[in-house]
Design brief:
The chain has 63 helices and four strands. The protein is mainly alpha-helical. The strands form two sheets. It has a two-stranded antiparallel sheet with strand order 1-4. One of its GO terms (biological process) is regulation of DNA-templated transcription.
Length: 1326
């Protein structure tokens, strides 16, 4: 703190002794130190003499300067007298224990009765009051008031006060009214008043605290004089600048706050109730508030803190009678003063009675209902909307408004009813809640919407702030009033415009709103309904957020899901009163009993329901867009909810019933129908539901049933207990019950065929259900269950698209009937028996044809059901049925040039004479249409190691547009009408569309889509039958479709799908076809064709240069170059894909061959194929066979490498192409290493084998070293390979034989080309 403080126990004698010792030892030092202290005191006093920036008049400044000079002279004279050994004591002496020259104004005090001197007042107290550390400020204030209290006490005990006053005034003027205060106290008060006007660090807080304590403790301070001193010391003159004025006004505010907190005014009033000090203080505070806008709110808080300590009598008699307060209230409504309104509310709360001073601000009589009435809100509207001046902080008036809008009784009542939801519907009306509801309606409608939302950005900001302030206490039932149409539209407008400065405000509001509903399903439902209802279901789309999507995905309990479902249903039927809780009817809690013996229908309530809804707002109800959102949201309720199976089934059935009622049926009388049989009431919107929405309901119903199929278990009867209805049976019985209600009919009329088809499907499902129950948990039950789902999907598809599926429905019913009659055993029979041979193929072929006929125009849920049926029946699919599916994959709208020949050859797709992968035909077409390009230099071989899975996606990132040339009618020239319509019905329909439409894009895209759906079935077939011999048939046909040029032209998605199925389900399958029905010649033929594709050279695409205008030659050349680059890239990608397909197919065929364990004699045909490949590789440049591919083949199948090693050595040694010889070195060394293992057990055998090949090896080495390659990499390969051969030969001790084979010329060439490698080998001969 700068100096040691004096203990209160020190006596005046001890002090004088200490002073005498100090003076005798350090006279000169003490003199200098006192001068420094006084100088510092003068500087500090001068700095604190006036508020910062206050420019006094010249006359006043001159007086102060003269006074300061006289004080200095007087102090200096006193010090000189003391140094000269004068016997009288110094008026103010420096503390001998102080080590800070600015710590004191005078020396130690002596006893007041004997010496007439006062204790010191350390200046460091004032310095510490401005510290940023609160503890330092508090300690300084406590020390200051303790010292001032001690000084004042001794001052009052002095017999001659005038001598002290005359001796040292310490800047305290005699006419300040504080005559009963010691000079130190008067100085401290003046300095504290000036300190609250300083903006240095925390000076205002510290000096205000320092002012509060002396005023509250020292009773000698006259309050009237102090108020005058504050006003005079911090007065504002015309010469002040803006910042100086602000600091003076803030200083007065802090000084008044210190007085209010001190409690002295209350004590003075209690001692003299006629005193006018309270009224004067009120006038002073209100007068200060009226000077500047930013002073109003803090001044009101100062006054409110003061009023809290006053008795009601004093408030009424003095505060309310203050002239400045009455004038302030009188002008508040016109000026728009929110602080006056806040003060009036708090004063009214304090006195609990009406008063004339409030007449313009508060209603008479006062009540919350009157306060929030339309007239009064209009009257105080200016006061409320002007509270925006303090943004981003929210004005204090809104906390008071919040407490009035949401009293504790309403909040507690909402909490109680939320915890006991079952009693909420039956509770009686609460007057407090009704009043709060009316208040909120008026407040939102008149002020929020009428004043704020239709005004400036600042006031819109205030609207968001008000709702955020209310949210913590706001019951869920009130949120609909705040999230009104105007509020939601304003929020959407701001969020959709990121450039708006309110965008961050709206985003923050949305985040806080989401946090508010986080753990409360009732609040989440209320907010979701409000946002979507007032945005026509487009809140997320307009705002580009996922707000509503996130809200709808957070329901995790059955109560929350049911509540959300109930609100969605009420929103769809346009009910104005949305219940807060789910229905308490029996059907809402558990599945209804659909027994047919209950009463059928009653529509007596239809007219009643119509009359009850006459008061609803709007004639057309909710928009179609909003209803569309409701329908889409229904099926998504169960997606994220983690419910128990029983709870999920209950919610599922509620959704199913609503979609069925709104999508399939209409009420012929009124909008309500009550069914006694189902024990519930069904409602429809007042306006007829559009057909599009009905179709949407049916589509969601299909999706709901399809999703249930993925998670449910087949029905069974276990332990003699009947299992609950599954969704399919529940829906069919519900549908049948509604059809029997006279006043309910289907939303559209059906023709006779469709009506019969619907009835037939209902009967079929009933039979299937009985058969499934009888089957128990067997595999047949799963088959029947999948058929039941397909039957229901078919029924809904007929209602969705009448006139299109009646024939397919009849076929499906026939298949189901035959399946049951045979009990599904005949479907798995091996074909023995004449009757079985006639009936079995018919059932499965009809079923496959039916499934294929449904695929082109089926919905996603129906396709899912088709795939499930095919999954359980695919093991029984006949070869004929499989070929029908493969025919779809290979079919093309644009027939090939040799279509007639192809049609005659492809009647049997499994015929061995068919050209595999259409290789010859493709070559013929390319020779006719394109010029053969020269292959690149043989030394620069392309790299085919890249797999097609990487090539295809990079080749074409986007699906190529459909070729408009396919729409030419001439494309059908190769096929007559009879041949066309002999095809299956589904393909014939696509061809018909192609003929009838001017552009072929629609037909082509439909065919591609159809192929993709059939591929899904084929993928299921391959997955369920991995080792079936028919896998080979599937592979050959899929491979032909993959390499067909039209496949890549039509769709890259189809191309990638084909490649993915071949790779994952055939090549990488865990099982391979092992059946003996696949003959070795067929495998050898397939292997040969694969190897031809691998070795096939790439043909570059080159366009024909047309005659070009010279003026446009440059542009035409650029376009031609770009076109050629595109063609070249596409051709190269396709070439690599086909090459990789052939390579992987080769590995797969060899795997099958090895698994069959053929004899060596039988395998000669396979070896002949590879012999031809090696001969072609070494004898011609045309072969593009990759040596890496051959290495893989030899490494995976060593028996091929061992049998062909002699031929490999011979051809590599005699080839006329040097680069071929070098390329084959890696293949030769790897094969030699596996063929001639070097170890103790096999040394003799290996030596014999090596001797067999030494002649060819020496011939090969001579050829290599005799003409070394030019490229460094290839020379290194030669040295490396020769070194390996030398190492193996020397290990078998055959060095001499090899050297003899090389001869002198060969050895010389080896020394020249191989150097040390050959010399080391040669030394091993010794």
């Amino acid at each position: 703190m700068g100096s040691k403080k004096r203990s209160s126990a020190e006596t005046s004698e001890d002090v004088e002794k200490n002073q005498t010792d100090l003076i005798m030892k350090k006279k000169k030092s003490k003199s200098d130190k006192m001068k420094t202290v006084l100088s510092a005191d003068d500087t500090d006093a001068a700095a604190a003499a006036a508020p910062p920036g206050v420019a006094s008049s010249g006359k006043d400044m001159e007086k102060k300067k003269k006074r300061k000079a006289s004080d200095k002279e007087r102090r200096r004279a006193a010090l000189e007298n003391n140094d000269g050994g004068a016997s009288r004591p110094d008026p103010m002496a420096v503390d001998s224990n102080s080590d800070d020259p600015e710590t004191s104004l005078a020396a130690a005090s002596s006893d007041s009765s004997s010496s007439g001197k006062l204790p010191e007042l350390p200046l460091n107290y004032f310095r510490d009051l401005a510290s940023s550390d609160a503890s330092v400020r508090e300690a300084a204030a406590a020390s200051l008031v303790s010292r001032l209290q001690e000084i004042q006490k001794q001052y009052e005990m002095l017999p001659d006060k005038e001598s002290v006053d005359g001796g040292l005034m310490l800047e305290a003027e005699k006419n300040d009214g504080l005559d009963n205060c010691a000079p130190h106290l008067r100085y401290a008060l003046r300095r504290l008043i000036r300190g609250v006007s300083s903006s240095r660090e925390c000076a205002r807080q510290g000096f205000a605290l320092g002012l509060t304590l002396p005023v509250s403790i020292i009773s000698s301070i006259n309050m009237e004089s102090l108020l005058k001193l504050i006003s005079d010391s911090l007065s504002v003159s015309s010469s002040m600048k803006g910042q100086d004025v602000k600091e003076c006004l803030l200083g007065r505010l802090f000084a008044y706050g210190a007085i209010a907190r001190s409690g002295r005014l209350v004590e003075d009033w209690q001692s003299d109730k006629d005193s006018q000090i309270i009224k004067e203080f009120t006038n002073a505070v209100i007068g200060l508030a009226a000077k500047k806008h930013y002073l109003q709110e803090p001044a009101v808080h100062v006054l409110l803190n003061f009023v809290e300590k006053l008795p009601t009598e004093a408030v009424v008699a003095h505060v309310m009678e203050a002239p400045e307060l009455q004038k302030w209230f009188e002008q508040a409504t016109e000026a728009g003063n929110p602080d006056a309104l806040l003060l009036a509310l708090k004063l009214r709360e304090k006195i609990s009675a009406d008063h004339p001073v409030f007449n313009k601000l508060l209603p008479v009589p006062f009540s919350s209902a009157n306060f929030f009435s339309a007239d009064h809100l209009s009257a105080i509207g200016n006061c409320l909307k002007e509270s925006t001046f303090c943004q981003p902080r929210v004005h204090s008036i809104w906390s008071a408004i919040r407490d009035m809008l949401l009293p504790e009784a309403v909040v507690q009542s909402e909490d109680i009813t939320s915890s006991s939801k079952k009693q909420k519907r039956n509770r009686k009306s609460n007057p407090v809640e009704d009043e709060a509801t009316n208040n909120i309606k008026n407040f939102c409608g008149i002020f929020m919407e009428g004043t704020l939302l239709s005004s400036s950005h600042d006031r819109k900001h205030l609207a968001f702030d008000i709702l955020l302030l209310l949210l913590p206490k706001l019951p869920a039932s009130f949120i609909q009033h705040f999230l009104s149409l105007k509020f939601v539209q304003c929020l959407m407008d701001i969020l959709s415009t990121k450039e708006s400065w309110l965008h961050k405000v709206a985003t923050h509001f949305l985040v806080e709103l989401m946090n508010w509903v986080k753990d409360d399903d009732t609040k989440r439902v209320a907010v979701t309904m409000a946002l979507q209802k007032h945005s026509e279901g487009k809140f997320d789309n307009v705002t580009r957020t996922k707000t509503v999507k996130g809200l709808a995905a957070d329901f995790e309990t059955e109560e929350g899901c049911t509540l959300f479902l109930q609100n969605l249903m009420n929103l769809f039927v346009d009910e104005q009163h949305v219940p807060e809780e789910p229905s308490s009817m029996k059907w809402a809690q558990e599945p209804s009993s659909l027994n047919s013996d209950q009463s059928q229908t009653t529509d007596d309530n239809s007219e009643i329901g119509s009359n009850e809804e006459k008061d609803s707002v709007g004639a057309t109800g909710n928009s179609d867009a909003l209803k569309s959102w409701v329908i889409e949201s229904l099926s998504g309720i169960l997606k994220h909810a983690k419910l128990a199976p029983e709870a999920k089934l209950r919610v599922h059935n509620q959704i199913l019933k609503f979609l069925a009622v709104q999508g399939l049926f209409v009420a012929s009388l009124g909008t309500e129908v009550t069914s006694f049989e189902l024990q519930e009431k069904f409602k429809w919107p007042k306006t007829a539901t559009p057909t599009a929405l009905c179709k949407m309901c049916i589509e969601q119903l299909q999706l709901l049933l399809s999703n249930s199929q993925k998670i449910e278990n087949p029905l069974s009867k276990a332990n003699g207990l009947e299992q609950p209805d599954d969704p399919v049976s529940y829906f069919m019985r519900f549908l049948s019950t509604l059809q029997n209600i006279p006043s309910v009919s289907l939303f559209r009329s059906l023709d006779e065929e469709d009506e019969n088809a619907v009835k037939e499907l209902q009967e079929t499902e009933s039979k299937l259900l009985k058969e499934e129950r009888n089957s128990g948990l067997s595999a047949d039950a799963k088959k029947i269950h999948s058929l039941r789902h397909l039957v229901v999907q078919m029924l809904l598809q007929i209602l969705l698209h009448p006139g299109e599926f009646s024939e397919a429905a009849a076929q499906l019913s026939v298949c189901c009937d035959k399946a049951f009659k045979l009990s599904l055993d005949l479907l798995r029979s091996d074909g023995e028996g004449e009757a079985d041979e006639e009936e079995e193929p018919a059932v499965m072929d009809v079923l496959v044809d039916t499934l294929l006929s449904l695929l082109p125009h089926s919905s996603a849920p129906m396709r899912s059901s088709i795939e499930q049926v095919f999954k359980y029946f695919c093991q029984d699919v006949t070869n004929d049925g499989l070929l029908r599916m493969l025919r779809v994959i290979k079919r093309d709208l644009k027939p090939a040039r040799h279509q007639k020949k192809k049609d005659s050859d492809s009647k049997d797709l499994g015929d061995d004479d068919e050209d595999f992968l259409a290789l010859e035909e493709e070559e013929e077409e390319e020779e006719e249409n394109e010029e053969m390009g020269e292959t690149g230099e043989s030394d620069e071989q392309t790299d085919d190691s890249e797999t097609v899975t990487g090539v295809v996606p990079r080749a074409v990132d986007k699906e190529a547009p459909e070729n408009s040339e396919d729409s030419d009618d001439s494309s059908d020239d190769g096929m007559d009408d009879d041949a066309m319509f002999r095809m299956d019905t589904y393909l014939a329909q696509i061809f018909k569309e192609k003929r009838n439409q001017p552009g072929g894009e629609t037909a082509q895209s439909q065919l591609v889509l159809f192929k993709l759906r059939v591929l899904s079935l084929l993928e299921i077939y391959l997955h369920e039958n991995p080792g079936n011999p028919q896998v080979m048939t599937v592979y050959t046909n899929l491979a032909q479709a993959l390499v067909n040029p039209s496949t890549a032209e039509s769709s890259q998605q189809l191309l990638q799908r084909l490649w993915g199925i071949i790779q994952k389900k055939i090549f990488k399958a865990k099982e391979i076809p092992r059946d003996e029905s696949i003959e070795l010649p067929a495998l050898a033929s397939l292997l040969e064709k694969n190897l031809k594709l691998v070795a096939k050279p790439f043909k570059s695409k080159s366009g024909v240069d047309p005659e070009v205008d010279p003026a446009k030659k440059k542009l035409a050349a650029w376009r031609r170059e770009k076109m050629n680059q595109t063609k070249q890239s596409a051709a190269w990608s396709r070439y690599k894909m086909i090459s990789n397909l052939a390579q992987n197919s080769t590995y797969w065929v060899l795997k099958i061959i090895e698994a069959r364990k053929f004899s060596e004699t039988e395998l000669e045909s396979i070896l002949d194929v590879f012999r031809n490949v090696l001969v072609g590789y070494f004898d011609t440049k045309k072969s593009q066979m990759k040596i890496d591919f051959l290495e893989q083949v030899f490494r995976r199948r060593p028996w091929i490498a061992h049998q062909l090693f002699g031929l490999l050595l011979e051809k590599s040694g005699t080839t006329k192409f040097d680069y071929r010889r070098v390329e084959s070195l890696e293949l030769i060394t790897e094969t030699l290493r596996s063929l001639v293992p070097i170890n103790v057990d096999t040394e003799e055998d290996s030596k014999q084998k090596m001797e067999t090949y030494l002649e060819n090896l020496s011939h090969l080495i001579k050829g290599l070293v005799g003409k070394m390659p030019d490229k460094h990499a290839r020379r290194a390969l030669v040295r490396k390979s020769c070194g390996r051969i030398f190492q193996m030969v020397s290990s078998l001790k055959l060095t001499k034989s090899l050297l003899e084979g090389l001869g002198p010329d060969g050895q010389t060439a080896c020394e020249t080309a191989l150097g040390d490698t050959f010399l080391k080998f040669k030394k091993t001969e010794e």
